[in-house]
Design goal:
By secondary structure, this protein is mainly alpha-helical. Helices cover 66% and strands 4% of the residues. Helix 1 (29-43) crosses helix 4, helix 4 packs parallel to helix 7 (137-163) and helix 8 (175-192) runs antiparallel to helix 9.
Length: 219
């Protein structure tokens, strides 16, 4: 069976959509299991998924799944890490570059989020984990950490802009929560009804709103 995979994590699969036959992907057994878990969760829309289904999709023995992951929860946590790691690392690289102006960092962050919203398979799985988080402490902690670091980085960028005299400080305290909320809100709507959403138009208006609160013109 052939699948379309817009996925990029420790599995090493390109972020660009690529049509492949899973049994012939040149991945390690652990990577194959993680990748098969993603595909199975997407296919079953977050409903009950068994390790046997994942093993069959990965083309590995059931015992190999247990060898690499002691439980289904451990497997799901590993997949969540795999999905979040490249996003977090990419943002960390940008944040570490002191020579990039705050305006450019903020613009990059906003534009990058528009690209991420289009990666439906990954976002559907992350949303599945988000819905599970109230009853799963470890998943909740990982997602809380993701949001906390996201808000922290936005706050740092805004403060850098204020220190340089680029941004107004009047609305700065609530801006990190607002930006994350703008992204999360459109993500859910887009996943449910992509045909109803003008994504470029939405992000254009979102950028205008954010920059207006900072009393600066969009670049």
């Amino acid at each position: 069976m052939t699948y379309v995979i817009p996925y990029h994590g420790q599995s090493g699969v390109s972020m660009k959509p690529t049509t492949v036959k899973l049994p012939h992907i040149d991945l390690t057994t652990r990577q194959r299991i993680l990748h098969a878990t993603l595909l199975t969760l997407v296919e079953r829309k977050g409903t009950s998924v068994s390790l046997r289904q994942i093993a069959e999709r990965a083309g590995v023995a059931y015992g190999n799944v247990h060898y690499h992951f002691r439980s289904k929860n451990e497997l799901f946590l590993a997949l969540l890490d795999d999905l979040l790691k490249p996003i977090v690392e990419e943002r960390a690289v940008m944040m570490a570059q002191a020579d990039i102006p705050p305006m450019h960092k903020l613009e990059t962050l906003l534009l990058r989020n528009e690209e991420l919203v289009r990666r439906e398979n990954e976002l559907r799985v992350i949303l599945t984990f988000l819905l599970q988080s109230p009853g799963n402490l470890k998943i909740r902690e990982k997602i809380q950490k993701m949001y906390s670091e996201w808000r922290r980085d936005i706050a740092i960028i805004v403060q850098q802009g204020i220190d340089r005299g680029d941004f107004s400080s009047q609305n700065a305290p609530g801006l990190p929560v607002l930006v994350v909320g703008l992204i999360e809100g459109i993500t859910t709507q887009y996943l449910l009804d992509p045909q109803a959403i003008d994504l470029p138009g939405y992000f254009r208006q979102a950028r205008q709103l954010v920059y207006g609160l900072l009393d600066v013109s969009p670049p």
